[in-house]
Amino acid sequence: LSGIWRSASEKYLANLGADGPQLLLQPWAAALYKDRLAGRVKGRPSDRCLPRGLPGVMLVRANPWKIVQAPGVVLMLFDESLHYRQIFTDGRPFPDDAAPSWFGYSIGRWDGDTLVADTIGLNDHTWLDEGGHPHTEALRVTERFRRRGAAAMDVELTIDDPKAYTRSFTTTVRFERVPAADLGEHVCPVAPAS
Questions:
Q1: For residue 63, which of 10, 98, 103, 181 sits 20 to 30 Å off, Cα-Cα?
Q2: How far is Cα 87 from Cα 14, in angstroms, rounded to an integer?
Q3: Residue 45 pLDDT
Q4: 143-153 per-residue burial string, b: 16 or more CB within 10 A, e: under 16
C-alpha cells in the first residue's frame, strides 16, 4: 500500500453517500444535516483550519496523502496541514480509555492482501464529508484498503454510529497513485491579527 494517493473523484468529499448507500439519520442528525445543506449552519471545520477527521481527510483530491508501512504500524501522512494518522498492526487491543481525538485510535490487521482498520475514539468536531453529514463520539469507522493494480486502490468504508444513524452504511472509494511525487507543505493560512 505504500505510496502517495489521492481520491479519484471529489464526489465523496461532497457526499459520502454519492454512490447510493442510503444514509438513514436519527431525527436530530437529519435536522442538523438539512440545516448544513441549506447554509444555516456556518463554519465547516476545514474552513476554520481544523482537521477534517475521518474519512474526510482522505477525500480531498487536491491534497494527496502518503502511506508508509513499517513493522507494527501503518502511517498515513496528510499533505493538508501536515496531519498524520497511525494504524497499529502489532496485535494490540483498543485502549480502555481512548480519549476522543481528530483521527481517533486505529488498530489494523491483514486479511490476505487487504488492510482492515478499525477506528474508535473520534471526537464529534468533524463532519463525515463537506456536505455536512454529522456524527457523534460513538462513531466507529472500518476501512478495508486493497490495491487494484499498480496505480489504484479501493477503500471500503463502513460508518457505524447508532447515535447519529439508524443503521450503518458502507461505500467504496477509489484512490489513484500519484507517481513521482512527494508531499508538499500545506499549512492552513491564519487570518492576520487585527
A1: 98
A2: 25
A3: 85
A4: bbbbbeeeeeb
All residues at 6 or more sequence positions from 59 whose CB lies less than 8 Å from its CB, including other chains:
7, 10, 12, 13, 52, 129, 173
Residue 190 is predicted with a pLDDT of 67
Task: Quote the pTM value.
Answer: 0.93
Give yes or no for a cis peptide into 21 (omega within 30° of 0). Answer: no
Burial class (CB in 10 A: 0-12, 13-18, 19+), 135: buried
Return the C-alpha cell found at 174: 477509489
User: Which candidate, 2, 25, 1, 8, places its Cα nearest to that of 131?
Assistant: 25
Q: Where are the alpha helices (DSSP H) in the chain?
A: 11-14, 27-37
Which of 7, 136, 124, 127 lies closest to 65 in space, CA to CA?
Answer: 7
| Helix extents (H) in 41-158 | none
The pLDDT tens digits for 29-83 are: 999 999 998 887 777 888 888 898 899 999 998 889 999 999 999 999 998 878 9
**Please, are residues 56 and 50 in contact by the beta-carbon 8 Å criterion?**
no
Question: Look-up: residue for cell 493494480?
Answer: 149
CB 175 within 8 A of CB 8: yes
What domains sit in the chain, N to C, each tagged with a CATH number? 3-177 (2.40.128)
